[in-house]
Amino acid sequence: MASTVDFIEYVCAQIEGVGAVRSKKMFGEYMVYVNDKPILLVCDNTVYVRMLPCLDGLMAAAEKDCPYKGAKEHYILDVDDRELARAVVAASEPFVSVPKPKKKKAP
Question: Does residue 86 sit in helix, strand or coil?
Answer without folding.
Answer: helix
